[in-house]
Amino acid sequence: MISSDEAEKKAIRQVANLMLAAARTAPKARGIDNLVTAIVEGEEKNSIARRMFEIGKEKGSASFVRDAKGIRFAEVLVLFGTRAKPMGLKICSLCGFKDCAELEKKDGICIFNTTDLGIAVSSAASVAGAHHIDNRIMYTPGIAVKEMNLLGEDIRIVFVIPLTVTAKSPFFDRKEK
Predict the structure, then answer these.
(1) How many domains are there within the chain?
(2) How many other C-beta atoms can be found within 10 angstroms of the C-beta atom of residue 14?
(3) CB 86 within 8 A of CB 104
(4) Do 97 and 106 touch, CB atoms closer than 8 A?
(5) Torsions phi, psi of 78, nearest 5?
(6) Range(s) of the domain holding residue 100
(7) For residue 170, is it within any domain?
(8) pLDDT (tens digit, 9 = 90+) per residue, 18-36?
(9) β-bridge mates for residue 138, sequence order
(10) Backbone dihedral angles phi then psi of residue 32, each to the nearest 5 degrees
(11) Helical segments of 26-61, H only
(12) Closest Cα to residue 146, out of 134, 138, 155?
């Protein structure tokens, strides 16, 4: 006999793997892949939650503290980050700079990097939703992950999707305190 706890944990891990595949195969501008992804659980997940609590206390942000509590309920966290690398376009300026050379000189972030990240994260979230796994796209743990350099020093933007299976998702109907 396999207990429901064991089966649900296995399902969460399987879905996390499928989410990474969905993110990787999501469309990328000019076919250039600046995406970095990972799955964390256990102590590494708890260290992210601790850093979120610290950030919340340091900056007086109730949302970081609230979200850190939610992260503790997650079985795994799926991490998504992007490098900031211009596409090398001669005509664009959607980022607000004259061209990619100026963007790079000013250490800006290419709009296509952020768009590609958003499409990848959305593709991954749709996989979790299609498999009825509790999830939510979150930026607050992304800030902790970025500060901790878990995806690498060259990663400029990070989003995180926590995953769990519960009777009531801990990632919604949240109250700031």
Answers:
(1) 1
(2) 12
(3) yes
(4) yes
(5) -105, 125
(6) 4-164
(7) no
(8) 999 999 999 999 999 999 9
(9) 160
(10) -95, 125
(11) 42-59
(12) 155
